[in-house]
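Sorry to interrupt, but I need a hand with the structure work. Go ahead and set the record down below:
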Amino acid sequence: MSHKTAKYITTTLPYVNDEPHIGHALEFVQADTLARYWRLRGEEVFFNIGTDEHGQKIAQKADEAGEDRQSYVDRYAERFNTLKAALHLSNDAFVRTSSAAHKAAAQEIWRRCDAKGDIYKKKYSGLYCVGCELFYKESELDDKQNCIIHKKPVEVVEEENYFFKLSNYQAQLAAYLQDETRTLPDWQRKWTLQFVEGGLDDLSISRHVSRMDWGVPVPGDEEHVMYVWFDALTNYISTLGWPSDPEGNFQKFWVDGETLQLAGKDQPRFQSIIFQAMLMAADLPNTDVIQYHGFINSGGHKMSKSLGNVISPYELVERYGTEATRYILLRHVHPTDDSDLTWEKMDEVYTANLVNGLGNLTARIMKMCETHLEPATFEPLNPAEIDAPHLLDFQKAMDHIWAKIQELDEIIAETEPFKLIKTDKVVAENILTNLRERLLHIGRLLAPCMPETSTAIREAVKANKKPENLFNRLES
């Protein structure tokens, strides 16, 4: 077998200060679909997810709950880890930033940046948002000095911290961001490039333990822990075994392979600026492609507990099942812009496109074939048939499949083979043979995005039998 380029794909790490939400599920399912697609094509794939477990917000939440910090993050990390079964994820790793291996990697990247002369210590005063765990310039806040993301006032913080010379990498970051193929969508690339060209301040990368003690210790200074982002961003390479690389995964997937990060639209400052500068300082390869997705709103409003419109991925799976949940996230959420989902809309698309659509089509075709055709022998799955004409645009890829489903519905409506079989058996059998082959192709196309549905359709075609209902009707 000829050598295939290894593929690495990672989601961002959810912060374990709350339950998993639909945005996490979106990113996980998108990444899983790509990982499955590449594997079907014969690529070697490393698919990473995990949890971000340090920082001030988590320390506060654990303290409020009267819980030991490690016990607190263990409990929430497990809630994210169980999404693997709920969403049928095929991830190869679940990295946790409180693990010993990750802490060692975070300390090593610190040492390398320090050896390069890119870390120094100074006293300063800054405007700090606890929610973002980030310092802001006054110009980045609203007119009431609130964080524009959390809509809450920032704190004035005065202390002595370590700083990373982010400003040293302004020219290199600008060059990285000028490449139109590496940061998607293009409006995110342009915004991030403009931010970099506007001038970069050095980044505070430690907190004194007297103010925040839940983090990775700074090498050589036990009075400081690492700023949560400097620690957490290292996960993308620590998960591969960097720096010791005992299994060769870092070399294979990060150095020699193709790397892709998926992230939310609020992440460019961290993923495309801070992390890429850290890699530059440590003399490590930059991420090949970073794609940013939009947010999921509900009923025209951002999801929030106070509005009572938060949608849990576990609730989706309970109501629609795993396969339909994957369908909704891939086809009815825009890959890069904000989208709006409500229970009413999801009920509607589930019934129309799955129960009455794909499910009914499969049942009709296979019932006719079971009655009127003999079983046939089919060639094994040819990976070349799993075409992805809109890779990274999940919505268009799903529309491509559903257009084929609609074509089969139209053929049945126009030719009525269930009637034709009585007057022209040969022609009717040819139509049914064609419908069966095309249904098999649809089943194959569904393999990366709806793997269990794909298997059910392909097995039904090969057995020449009508399957059990693919999608059950919703209870009123």
